[in-house]
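Hey, I'm writing a tutorial for new members on how sequence and structure tokens pair up, and I'd like a real worked example in the thread rather than a made-up one. If someone can provide the structure for the chain below, I'll link this post from the tutorial.
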Amino acid sequence: MNNDVSRREFLALAGTGLLASTGAVRAQSGKRMFAYVGSWTMGPFGTGGGGGLHVFSVDMTNGALTPVMRTTGPAYENFHVGYMQVSPNGRFLYATNEVENHDGEFNGGSVVTFAINQADGSITEVSKQHSMGVYPAYLAIDKAGTMVIIANHGNYDASVRVVKKNGVPEIEKVWDDGTVSIFPVKPDGTLDRASDVHVLERTTSVDTYSQRSSHAHSVNFDPSYRMALAADKGTDHIYTYRIENGRTLANPRAFKTAPGIAPRHSAFHPRLPYVYVVNERESSLSVYRYDAPTADITFIETVPTVPQGFTGRSTPADVHVHPNGRFVYSSNRGHNSLAIFRIDEATGRLALVEITPTQGNTPRAFNFDPTGRFIFAANQGSSNIVTFTVDPDTGKLTPTGAKVEVPRPVCVKFAAI
């Protein structure tokens, strides 16, 4: 069986409205697995056309993806997905529209709620909410499905305003705020207005372009959902918050990382008090110990994510801990690989297992299916998703042969329904 799906076949299936619910192989739980893929429509690797959101059924015997639907029309051709999450009950998909102005006004990006059809996995938009910042790059939801937090990246371009200081007019440059916002989830699954917003420190760091202002690139709950951690790649800070009453980002604290490394995405260990943060400008992965009651973190170590002696340009993007808690994985854009590390559970420290090519270019994102059996590498630069099996004892990856074309994929999430 040929598991490659051409773009022409994908568009033909989507155009007919054919829903492949009957082709979704049932997981061991008896439920069917669906994959939700978000794509860029602006920025690197082309603009416009073919972006937005895509739905696939997942064959749990080999990890092959079969198209179910693709959102179409003017509203979605320019839907510039930043990040997505599926609600714990599998009934809703939340996606950020990572734009500067989502409706033509100067009001920042948005987060859109889609209802997931329980019969076939397809999605329908049901509401939209302001993200309370510019270019919302990341989104997380708690295990009860009662609150959503968003990291708003901000822009790189400055605005000029004139101010008077001691009566003398001066030109002042200002940048968008990097923010973290929290939203209560209403009983109908849609998001209420933001109940709290934290504005990141208005400062600078090493790089004269990408670090002239704060850029929140991710925010995640810890497994207890009493703490959240945001990575600010613009000013080399990690922020922590205590979550109070599902509505407040309490006691915000800023921790300075090594200068110029640009902390980007984070992943908490599922059982132990460790969090792993990938650094965009250094090709490295840092380990921290965290304390949920105090929202405190302590640096443990940093390890490289590319081979010794590699001299090309590579920027790590995504990081995930395997569901069994034994391994952590990081993607390398440029080196086009996934770095695999074994976790010492007593210390949180990492030992390199191997570095595996993703069979594509610019792996901006990857993810495990909920069982941890497969990894799906989303190669943004080559517009494909490649499936690998995961050895739970060694952490090593083996390609299954399953591959599907998707325009500029940047996020992959799953729902078992």
